[in-house]
Each structure stands twice: as structure tokens, then as C-alpha cells.
Amino acid sequence: MTTEDKELEFIIYCIENTAERLGRYGSEVYNKLKELGAIDSYIRSYYDTLHTQGKAYIVDSLLEYIYYRDPQWLPEGYKPFQPTITKVKSIKGCSTFDEILDIEYGPIGTPERNNFERGADAFILAERLKEE
What we know:
It is a single chain. The protein is mainly alpha-helical. It is built from eight helices and no strands. α1 crosses α2 and α1 crosses α5. The radius of gyration is 16 Å and the shape is globular.
């Protein structure tokens, strides 16, 4: 797979996950991101960094990109991601990585935590396969 193929696959991933979060069609999100220049000036430009981030971060960053350029396109009342003071204080009080994961994704066995764990496992496997 060429670098260009990987970037294209990642762009599709970004669009589809953003569409899922918004409850919109992928084509709508693609058209908006293209109109705003996000595909080339953000996703492609920062591919090396973005593709190492989690789905929530990627989608939040794209929604923030849209928010500062065309806020009325987003759902009414949408505000960019801002961690709550309570959450920040909770995370600062953690002494293990598992405690942070509990705050971010819920306890082990919850659907959100299971999704995170599956994504993390898939990422680790993909990285190991790249090394071989």
C-alpha cells in the first residue's frame, strides 16, 4: 500500500467517523470538509500526527475545524471539545494508566471501554505488522 493509499484510507476514516458522530451522511461531511479546505490543509497536512491519534480526538479536532469556519453547519448548541474542570482534576489525581482509562472510557466491561480496547489492540497489531 502506497503512502497516498494510506492517506486516502485515513481521509475516508475521518469523514465516516465524523459523519457517524453528527448523524449525517459521509457525502455531506466530505463536501463540507472539501469546501472548507480541511482535506488538504488539515487532514493531509497533518496526516503523520493525526493518524496516530484516537478516533475521538480526530473527530473532535475536525468538528473544531468546522466550528471555527462554519459553526452554523454543526448541530445547534455545539461547542468545541473542552474538558470539564472536574474531569481534569480527576485525571490529575490518577496514579495509574488504568485509572485514566476508567475516567476517559469507563470501567472495564462497559461498551465504550470495550470499543477503546478493541481499537487499541488493532492499533498495536498493525504497528507490530509494520515492523515485520
